[in-house]
Amino acid sequence: MTIAGAGQGLNWLSASDAAAQIASGQITARDLMEAIIDRISARDATVRAWSWFDAARALKMAEEADKIPTNQRGPLHGVPVGIKDILYTKDMPTQFNSPHFQGHFPNIDASCVALLRGAGALIIGKNDTVEFAVNGRRAATTNPHDPARTPGGSSSGSGAAVADGQVPLSIGTQTGGSVIRPASYCGVWALKPTWNAVSHEGFKTCAASFDTLGWYGRSAADLDLLAEVFGIFDDQTPDIPALNGLRIAVCRTPAWPQIEDAGRAALKAATAALKAAGVTVETLDLPPAFDGLPDAHKVIMQSEMRSAFLAEHRKFGAALYPEMHAILRNEAGQTRKDLIAAQDLAARCRAEFETLAEPFDAVLTPSTAGVAPLGPDNTGAATFNRIWTLLHMPCVNIPGLTGDAGLPIGVTLTGPRFSDRKIIALAARIGSLLDGAPVA
């Protein structure tokens, strides 16, 4: 399936191209914003990616941006950005898609929002999310390729808005698979960086050991542009002149028994494309200890949720959605001993994975089990994302492949902690191979 009107108009510019054209005077910030507003107006009734958007305000912001002298402009000058509605914004509501926080104004910017504004970005609205970015009430957002299907969660609106040409960049968060999964289902580029490489000050905490700010763009260059804005760097500047001669490991992960036909075919197609480009592709089988990571993720996440949501638990109690209420009451009976064992396993596996990955330039793994399922209640599962989130590894969703009914499906490139810029650079090379590649 194809997105209505895809590729037509300024609204489809990548952030990198938009920033360059504004800087050179080819277009104005107002030109770009008018195209964005027209697209949102045409598609919002179907895609519903925004929980808050004011067209008149957005246009005024663009007009004011055009008045700023050239020598005072940042790298994102005039580029519109959407913000997941769990991140605080001083000039618009932050409602967590929760009935308990409608009209909530924190009156402060999250650290990442402040950095974006400082770089010249125009924060145009809030993207819809699953309630508290955890579970419960679903985002109203639909998949731009097929409105009967989910865009994924919890960063539902963030992924869909970029995929549908409604904004060139958007910010999401991931605690399990909430950045990479929507990217795979919607067919866009996304980065979940190394944990804590970007400050998580100013968004609704779920599990502080895992919560990671991430972002969506239309190209690997867009991901790299924001990595620069957010101050992410590797110890060595990546130099990837070509893929020929590189070594890539394919890791199925302990979740492989849950792969679907489309996910299996996508990984096979990506592997074939790499081999054809001269890459040495090898299999990386994780040791048995890694089989315990999904359960460890659950124990740590739920234990930390009981701290993060203690105030809401005491205030709203059973009025919270049932699954959250059960977690906060610790109905599973998780002990501190369980938590320590899970934390210790995670720490051991982080070190061991980096030893296992050291001989390779990167690791290729599924982004999702398959294509986007029918929604809205089923937002898909973080099955193939959780262990990388727990291990704190950087992950890039590489789009370009399609599965059932022409729906997009991504693959993930990952590697050791704090190799974010290298992973983005490698992903850019691989992405050029996969765009439109046949899926066996």
From TrEMBL:
<feature type="domain" description="Amidase">
    <location>
        <begin position="31"/>
        <end position="423"/>
    </location>
</feature>
<dbReference type="InterPro" id="IPR000120">
    <property type="entry name" value="Amidase"/>
</dbReference>
<protein>
    <submittedName>
        <fullName>Amidase</fullName>
    </submittedName>
</protein>
<feature type="region of interest" description="Disordered">
    <location>
        <begin position="138"/>
        <end position="161"/>
    </location>
</feature>
<dbReference type="InterPro" id="IPR036928">
    <property type="entry name" value="AS_sf"/>
</dbReference>
<dbReference type="GO" id="GO:0003824">
    <property type="term" value="F:catalytic activity"/>
</dbReference>
<dbReference type="InterPro" id="IPR023631">
    <property type="entry name" value="Amidase_dom"/>
</dbReference>
<dbReference type="Pfam" id="PF01425">
    <property type="entry name" value="Amidase"/>
</dbReference>
